[in-house]
Design goal:
The protein is about 45% helix and about 15% strand. By secondary structure, it is an alpha/beta fold.
Length: about 250
């Protein structure tokens, strides 16, 4: 798909991989709708990209429906949707004080998995009614963000790993379903990316994480995630797949 001129919705656009993705797609000519619970920082991303910002909890059905109605009415039908919104709290199943808080587990699934599906379902509904943008009959592409934790999650990551494994698990069946509408569905599973989520870690923790990476021996960069997203948008043959972006890292148990 030619990115230039397309409406691109990016969730989690206030910082990290979401902000980098919004800027990369804008540079390629897309018109950005930046969604984040943190509206103030989403507005900063929108200002840098010449787009619009929307404050929204991605797991809230009514709120996201209202945002998509506004986007389609005022900007047009989104042809690119990138789900970057997510949270990563850690908790052991059996803690020192009590068992894992069930509300916390539910919240992680709600934001990371349900939130991604919520945005995806609404985006797909709009794309399915649109006119194809090229000779392939392509109507749009939806890119979700999983994590290498979906495959080798660490101790304390039960909720996070489960949520990201769910994102991986829904990729192929949804890609198969939406193929008749010319909509591609792809997931990226980043490894250790230098984002605000990992900011402020002690040097020894940073070094131990880097040590598990095969090559290159460093944390990934948000721009590298954004570069992959851009390529997925432009390469119509990438569909129904989860792509690890991780320097061949395999996470240790803890």
């Amino acid at each position: 798909m030619d990115i230039s001129g397309q409406i691109a919705v990016v969730t989690g656009a206030a910082s990290g991989m979401g902000a980098a993705t919004a800027k990369s797609l804008a540079k390629a000519g897309a018109k950005i709708a930046a969604i984040d619970l943190n509206l103030e920082d989403a507005e900063k991303t929108a200002a840098e990209t010449g787009g619009r910002a929307f404050g929204c909890d991605v797991s809230d059905a009514a709120a996201v429906e209202a945002v998509f109605k506004e986007i389609t009415t005022e900007m047009g039908v989104p042809r690119i949707v990138v789900n970057c919104a997510g949270i990563c709290p850690a908790s052991r199943v059996v803690g020192r004080e009590a068992p894992h808080d069930l509300a916390l587990f539910t919240k992680v699934l709600s934001v990371n998995l349900v939130g991604s599906f919520n945005v995806l379902r609404l985006a797909a509904a709009e794309m399915s009614k649109a006119t194809p943008v090229n000779d392939d009959g392509e109507n749009g592409v939806i890119i979700n963000t999983a994590s290498v934790a979906a495959f080798d999650g660490q101790i304390g990551q039960a909720g996070y790993s489960a949520s990201k494994a769910g994102v991986v698990g829904m990729t192929l069946p949804i890609a198969r379903e939406l193929a008749r509408f010319g909509i591609r569905v792809v997931t990226v599973a980043p490894g250790l990316i230098e984002t605000p989520m990992l900011a402020g870690m002690p040097q020894e923790v940073h070094d131990s994480l880097v040590a598990t990476t095969i090559f290159p021996k460093r944390l990934g960069k948000a721009d590298e995630f954004a570069d992959l997203v851009k390529h997925i948008c432009e390469n119509a043959l990438i569909n129904g797949e989860t792509i690890r972006l991780d320097g061949a890292v395999r996470l240790a148990p803890k």
